[in-house]
From TrEMBL:
Cofactor(s) required for function per UniProt: pyridoxal 5'-phosphate
Ranges that cross the membrane: none
Keyword match Lyase: yes
Gene name of this polypeptide: ltaE
Protein name (database record): Low specificity L-threonine aldolase
Amino acid sequence: MDFRSDTVTKPSQAMRDAMINAAVGDDVYGDDPTVNELEQWAAERHGFEAALYTSSGTQANLLGLMAHCERGDEYLCGQQAHNYLYEAGGAAVLGSIQPQPIENNPDGSLDIAKLKAAVKPDDSHFARTKLLSLENTINGKVLPLEYLASARQFVDEYGLSMHLDGARVYNAAVALDIDVREIAKYFDSMTICLSKGLGAPIGSLLLGSKEYIAKARRLRKMVGGGMRQAGILAAAGKIALTENVEQLKVDHQNAKYLATELAKLPGFSVKAEYVHTNIVFAKLDESVDIKTITAKLADDGFTVTASNPLRLVTHRDVTKQHIELLIEKLNKYI
Ligand SMILES: *Cc1c(COP(=O)(O)O)cnc(C)c1O
């Protein structure tokens, strides 16, 4: 019972069967029919011209940023953005792209006035501002559609492009009960992680225009991301998108239940209004010795990261019964 992340999900039997039976070829030659089919299908499904299958979400973001920006360009992003904080500085290191982080609002959005103030004038002192990169969901929070519309208006006004780190964009779409295209339509490019709540073992997608994806494909080869018989993995990726989206609704219900129960524990505070999807944060006061508690939980078969705030993630491999049991144990150990 692993609550660290939705990345721990294991491939379903349907995925394993599809992987065994996948038709494959050498994808670097463009010969893998399963990868080609996934890329064509995903482009159409999400309202883009083209798609690229990548080895990870980090790689999809890196290629995505590098395909928008040249050396000496910059992208605007959130201080809490995954592609600023958690990707080893890849865009700066490998792309020579300068990030310009903006403090995230409590709801995860970036203040449009602050974004406008951060756009650099065309002057040889400055990096060239090219791109706004948003993240949805961000720390489990869904950006409102009205916010996406205002961000689009901002980038259009300033001649920038707009990228979505959509690692969990399906969680956002399911939480809003809308088709994922209703989110995707605001963006020039978007990533999707197939290997989180959607349950594929490996893989992400980058979506965009034909020209943009052709550029990203070259960059993927450059960073060593050209894979050969990748159809074995892409077969599971297709199932993630066709069969596993519904499950996210259950994950979100479980997260809400978990948040409600955690909030009842002494020393735990949960901002329930920000539990939109499958991630729950609980701030712990000093009375809670989380290291000792997580060590005891480990003996009971629960894997939980000892952190403050405590971050618990629901997914297809944890059930409501597991959560009930977790709460029971937490009550005992506090
Ligand atoms: C997980 C995640 C990524 C990176 O995905 P990996 O496949 O782990 O490299 C990118 N962005 C966000 C928002 C994520 O949650």
